[in-house]
Amino acid sequence: MGGTGGEPLEINQAHNDDAERGVLGAIINNNDLYDLVAEHLDESDFFQRAHMLIWRGIAALLTDRRPVDTITLLEVLAPYREEVGGMDYLSLLETYRWNADLTLDYTRIVKQKSSDRRIVVTCSRIAEQASTAPALYTPNHIEELLAFAEHEFAQIAARQIYKPEASKGDVLNEVIHKLEHGQDTGLRTGFATLDERFGGFNVGQLSILAARTSKGKTAIALNWALNVAKAGKSVGFFTLEQPVDEVYTRLLGIEAHVDTTFHAPRYGLVGEELKRLKDAREALVKAPITLRYRPRLTPRMLRTDCKRLAREQGPLDFVVIDYFGLMKSDKSHDESWQAAREVVLALKEIAGELNVPMLVLWQLNRDLDERQPPTLANLRDTGAAEEHASNVIIIWSPKPAEGRSPFAPAVGDATTVPVELVIAKQRNGPAGAKVPLRFHRAWGTFEPGIAVYDAPRPGYERGYDA
Q1: Average pLDDT, stretch 34-38?
Q2: Which CATH number is 185-462's, of 3.40.50.300, 3.40.1390.10, 3.40.50.150, 1.10.860.10?
Q3: Does residue 347 have a pLDDT over 50?
Q4: Fold topology of 4-160
Q5: Between residues 164 and 235, which one has the greater pLDDT?
Q6: What is the distance between the alpha carbons of residues 330 and 332, in angstroms, rounded to a whole number?
Q7: Helix, strand and coil in the chain, % to nearest 5
């Protein structure tokens, strides 16, 4: 008995053998129809195993640039001759009533029946999980089950989308129009010196902000998220390490220029700090930024949360995850690098599916020479990060030149630390630029800085690393 993906099920499954024969017969008679059909079907969409094998044989022949007819097809399917019905059945398909003009309609019928079966299978799996107690009790059981259900149905829905491809001329006209009028859709960080060198966060791209522990990853990500929100864009900020109240405490400090994490909790507020905090509260209430504390976040849960926020507040324009090292895979893996790779690929898929830029904070886990800026090599413990991220920005706290102090007094009680943002990789611009900033640790804010070297490096004025 056939089934979705070749797995038999003890249920009366939806299928249409005539439509499946019509699709296969049409391609055997007119090989040029394969590309049209293959945009919508794969072998798992066929109900009958014989039809799945025949489709696989057709694909193998055409991929090898060989013609498909009953003789070549039977040759490539020799190991499965009996399962596919031999020459008698292939000849039947060849003479089966087919119509090139109706091939796409037959294809849609096959796809619809396939989706019907997938829905039945998914509902059965959800019902089984809902009626079975988890092996280990978790208070998040229902939330995880709902996330699983939404993910599975999203996968089915994604397979149903037929998006007509824009013509070559239309695409080229749109590109030229954007270039002519200077239309740049990438989200800006709000740091002028960085935005001059960085192409911004673009829709569907996965970006990484990496640094060693306590180098300001969360602080600078909050600065960027707040600046994006102040520009009128909706931001979803997912924190896996700090509860929401702690993150809001840091946001208040950033907006009000108040030490909300050390000085104020111990010694109280002074001067105009209370007024500045109240003004900051009003600004944060109005800003379209939403925080979610998810200590056991998985890609499946992230997709569900993002879609829920989109339903409640409108489409998201920017998603930030703090941080990758605490994320969990949707599946169990023997090796940590396998789990990390799966999560990276899932995040990239979600960014594309939701049509949103995604920024993931990354903790460098390799010993670094503080005298040299980090590179992409420091991300290679997973491999997938370096390969699949569109942009990688690394925070570096370089050692100052001999005789120069790394700390300098600034406004109020704050002290500042020189840092550089190393643009190690970017999709829409040159890599290698280093952007100097000064980090106000007490407030969690950043301002333009100067290089910590005694002499400027060649190429700095261009924003490139010579």
Answers
A1: 83
A2: 3.40.50.300
A3: yes
A4: DNAb Helicase; Chain A (1.10.860)
A5: 235
A6: 7
A7: 50, 15, 40
